[in-house]
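Sequence in, structure out. Go.
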Amino acid sequence: MSATGSAVRSMSAIGTAVAVTAGMLVVLTPAPAHAAAGANLPFTSVEAEAAAGTGTRIGPDYTQGTLASEASGRRAVRLDAGRRVEFTVPRAANAVNVAYSVPDGQSGSLAVYVNGQRLARTLPVTSKYSYVDTPWIAGSRTHHLYDNTRMLLGRNVQAGDTVALEATGVQVTVDVADFEQAPDPAAKPSGAVSVTDKGADPGGQGDSTQAFRAAIAAAQGGTVWIPPGEYRLTSSLNGVQNVTLQGAGHWHSIVRGSRFIDQASSSGNVHLKDFAVIGEVTERVDSSPDNFVNGSLGPNSSVSGMWLQHLKVGLWLTGVNDDLVVENNRFLDMTADGLNLNGNARGVRVRNNFLRNQGDDALAMWSLNAPDVNSSFENNTVSQPNLANGIAIYGGTDITVRGNLISDTNALGSGIAISNQKFLDPFHPLSGTITVDGNTLVRTGAMNPNWNHPMGALRVDSYDSAIEAQVRITGTTVTDSPYSAFEFVSGSGRGFAARNITVDGATVNGAGTVVVQAETQGAAVFRDVTATGVGAAGVYNCPYPSGSGTFTVTDGGGNSGWNSTWSDCSSWPQPGQGNPDPDPDRNLTRGRPATATGSQDVYTPGKAVDGDANTYWESANHAFPQSLTVDLGSAQAVRRLVLKLPPQTAWGARTQTLSVQGSTDGSAYTTVVAAKDYRFDPATGNTVTVSLPSGTTLRHLRLHVTGNTGWPAAQFSEVEAYLR
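Output:
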């Protein structure tokens, strides 16, 4: 499983996002250049905090491990016993699904009232499938605090009717309710082999495993029919190929079992459709195949119309799954991933699915053993992945992530992650063209407890190797990111480059800190990126490790609302903090990106801005002139430079001939201080002070060295810049 070290509160039938502000419903409209992002869903969700009732609203909160932070919209309603929340039904419906949480170790029920009349049936609620611990994943805390419970109402309700939920015998936190018109049970297809004819028990008491196996064997080339009822399976199916397994609809045909198909290979042509598989997985055990599908369905297969719940993973796909289509399914309450293409997937299409409350990446491609190729995640709706990313692409060739709606990531995840994090070998890094188009990200990004600073709504991560693929990010809408909109990082801390990136046509409607969070060397071009409601500054540009290189942010035109730069790489901006007032006594170069025309061995440019006078940069020998350039991050009125060599007496006195140059754009440089000789003498600390003329403003500081009497190269242990 893939937790990185890894949009919208309510989803309507047409995939628009409904947010709640001051108790009112607000429709969030994606960028007009693209169709509405997300899945076309058969239900409409209503947030509990937008409903009437006698409960207590909680949130918003972005703190890892709290009920509010894991809730849709970061808000929910707490019901003590006897308290209720009353929803106004937004559409004709006969069924409801409720996302909820109860205290650890407790169970109970929600009484259901329709237009004030209490129903005989209740909605069961339990903590059995919640409160998951994964201590082997660094930075994780107890998570997966919510669960889903559903029922057929037994009657039709109309738009404007009320459905109230009342806590009975236990405190219940209600997050969101989904209302839908569940269709009547479908009829048995002609010629299908029914599992009940092979002895399956639709009452859920007997073990129906052998009956399912017998029906599959008898129906080769045809259809296995799963009539309305509940069927208990005690072990997984294998050898499934050249067959369709079809139910009467996922509200009617229900399989109870934590492992459905487990097989390393298949000749393919497997079609799974229109039934529910609801498991009993209460913890995450990565070595156990507690999945709906574990392994391969083979080529030309499909999964559609399924309700998958309480499993470890919905589909953990290895082996051959060429041209697989996964569409129109619901993935709820997995303790790990919703779906993971685990290498060797070619031409796979995952589209129009709904995923809520996944315990790791909701949708992932992981190119282990072989690359995933020419595969896509399109028009899916992902809500509340509570440990990692909404969508994660770990390696692969020519991958597409298009038209998805992702909301409320938590702990170790972004809305979308495009990454070279390998986890295991042999891994196949990103290659070809990675297309990230028309996605909407709402309240995505999270505070990473391992890094002690946050991840952006959309993250490009050169974790284990440089990104050489062409990464094309277009038509992105970022709404209410708690931190940054776009992050470029090497999450391992080794500073691999993230390059060949373009960001075109993005709209940022609220970012708690910055629009661009650049933390590794590399480059990206931004065109037509507009931002409003930016909390701290437009750009945070502080590659790590210090001195490892620079990240070049190129303005391709049409950008607005984010032209400022965070000026202090020694501190991380907090949401809404604003750019700090410059401290005139602070060294502006410390920790800033540094480059040079050349260097010797380990004496790299970053050693001149690392705050340690005992380490130093040394240029190539016998190759004057040489220069060292430091990017201060923003234009500064520099008045004084302090240049140092190591203070040890072994560094004999020497004179370096140098000039000071400056630039505001990193391209055109002017001479600030003309060339002259500067004597470095250990008797006076091997330190030289250079005063800059009044009125000097520069972002890029360059020392241009033409001679050194003590060594045939330019040398500096520290280059410091001050405002006074």
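Check: Helices lie at 67-70, 209-218. Confidence is low (pLDDT under 50) at residues 1-33.
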